[in-house]
Amino acid sequence: MEQSIAWNNAVSQFNKAAKILKLNESVIELLTQPKRIIHVSIPIKMDDKSLKTFQGFRVQFNDMRGPTKGGIRYHHEVDMEEVKALAFLMTWKNTIVDIPFGGAKGGIICNPKELSEAELERLSRGYIQAMYQFIGPEKDIPAPDVYTTPQIMAWMMDEYHKFQGHNVFGMITGKPIELGGSKGRDIATALGGTFVLEEALQKMKLQKPTIAIQGFGNAGRTAAKLLSDKGYKIVAVSDSHGGVYNEKGLDLKALMSHKDKTGSVKDFKDAKNISNEKLLEIECDVLIPAALGNQIRKDNAQKIKAKIILELANGPVTSEARELLFKKGIMSIPDILANAGGVTVSYFEWVQNNTGDSWTHEEVYARLKDKMVEAFDSVYEVYEEENIDMGLAAQILAIKRMVRVMELRGIYKK
Ligand code: GLU
To answer: Are 389 and 322 spatial neighbours (Cβ–Cβ below 8 Å)?
Structure first.
């Protein structure tokens, strides 16, 4: 159910932009069809010697701007429709930050929390055995996404090695640093988000904002830490069990050790427990949905009190909600801009792998900041010119860039 929501939402944002651009029907058709869909069965011997067959997907949506690129998601509810929607979003995300990649996404239907480490390794290797012909540094470059880690990327790279007979570091990103990973990749999504947020705070003339964050996984937790280190006041955070709120600000360090000890942010001292839903509606200046998709919709957009929303998750705000929020004077910074820091440092990793170079943390952060600020400014320009929400502005900019490439390639002539 949710999966087709993801696809419908992504396409509805695209269609709104296509309408404003008066995009030719045949161009719309090409840009909304994936180039290649791969569906594989992965047989795995489980620890108890039983045999289990898992379903894996890879959607290579569009490679007109370069090899396709995007993460692999391990989730019990993932399916082809969702992977397709996420691959479509990757196409635009990579275009917005202007890195030479097309868009892709992968997934395996599984519950990683129920698998042993050895089973997880066999499954990850099985995915590469089934997919290796279709991926590679010049074809399609996977990376981490929900519940996939640097260790999983290392196993996948090692498996690919077996088929090629030599190391191919640039075939996957988000690897451990000891094995060709880039410095800064671990915090890149959140860090990129903070760069974009600071640009937005300046434009909105908001000083000393209070911040609420939904989600305490890689993106949410790192964003909370980075922002709190910079001196911002975090008033609420949540994880899948629920959230906590203190209008005077949360002690992040103590909260992180509470989460590590108890498995949840809930029941933290000096804070009120709140639900994930309520967190979205609390009094704050900046709201960061960093967990799941489809959180802010037509039905709850009116209740949002924040002035800026930073969409750190993929697809947390629907295109209808973005428009409603815009009319209320709230700026929702779309996912394809807000969370593009992850894939941007993946691109840096790929460049380092292909050249044999190794950049310092400072170099990576400085280059990431340049990329994110440039992307924000380009989207903001369209937003001001057209007087439309930032989601629509980002989509318009991305389509324009894509159509230009189609013209240069000779695929399409106006
Ligand atoms: N999975 C991340 C995303 O949704 C990163 C993709 C990548 O690094 O290729 O943007």
So the answer is: yes
Residue 298 pLDDT more than 90?
yes
Distance between CA atoms of 205 and 3, rounded to whole angstroms?
Answer: 37
Q: Which residue has the tokens 């799941």?
A: 292
Q: What does the mean pLDDT of the chain come to?
A: 97
**Can you state the angle between helices 319-327 and 2-20, rounded to 10 degrees?**
60
Task: Give the pTM.
Answer: 0.97
Give me the domain span that covers residue 296: 187-338
**Do 147 and 240 belong to one domain?**
no
Q: Which atom of ligand 1 is nearest to the CA of 343?
A: 8
CA distance 335 to 351: 24
From 105, 175, 307, 371, the catalytic residue: 105
Residue 307 a catalytic site member: no
Residue 336 CA to ligand 1 center (angstroms) comes to 10
State the distance from the centre of ligand 1 to the C-alpha of 72, rounded, in angstroms: 8
What's the total number of domains in the chain?
2
For residue 356, being part of any structural domain is answered with no
Q: Given ligand 1 and candidates 153, 346, 372, which is best to mutate, with the most ligand atoms within 8 Å of its CB?
A: 346
Indicate which atom in ligand 1 lies nearest the CA of residue 93: 10
Q: How far apart are CA 152 and CA 40, in angstroms?
A: 18
Gap between the Cα atoms of 194 and 222, Å rounded: 10
What CATH number is attached to the domain comprising 85? 3.40.50.10860
pLDDT in tens, 227-251: 999 999 999 999 999 999 999 999 9
